[in-house]
Amino acid sequence: MIDALGGTTAVARLATTPVSTVHSWRKNGIPASRLAHLKLAVAVAKPSIDIDAIVSGVTQAAAA
Predict the structure, then answer these.
(1) Distance of CA 23 to CAs 1, 8, 10, Å?
(2) Which phi and psi angles does 22 have, rounded to 5°?
(3) Pick from 14-18, 30-34, 60-64: least confident
């Protein structure tokens, strides 16, 4: 999901969080509260991106 949104630095900017935090999300997953924040940020900053489809794809891949 992070790559689909432009990479670690881009997501850090969207989430207004340090790059190191986003890097840890790659290993540990994105906390639910931050995922909700990212959905809102993407809807405002990048309305052409279907964040729900990205999240759904990530969730399905993790379950497989």
Answers:
(1) 12, 6, 11
(2) -65, -40
(3) 60-64
Residue 62's pLDDT is 53
User: Rg (Cα) of the chain, in Å, rounded?
Assistant: 11
15 in Cβ contact with 41 (< 8 Å):
yes
Q: Which ranges of the chain does DSSP label H, i.e. alpha helix?
A: 8-15, 19-28, 32-45, 51-63
- Torsion of Cα atoms, 8 then 51 then 28 then 62, to 10°: -130
- Tokens linked to 14: 């969207």
Given this model, what pLDDT does residue 41 score?
A: 86
How many residues make up the chain in this entry? 64
Report the mean per-residue pLDDT for the chain: 84
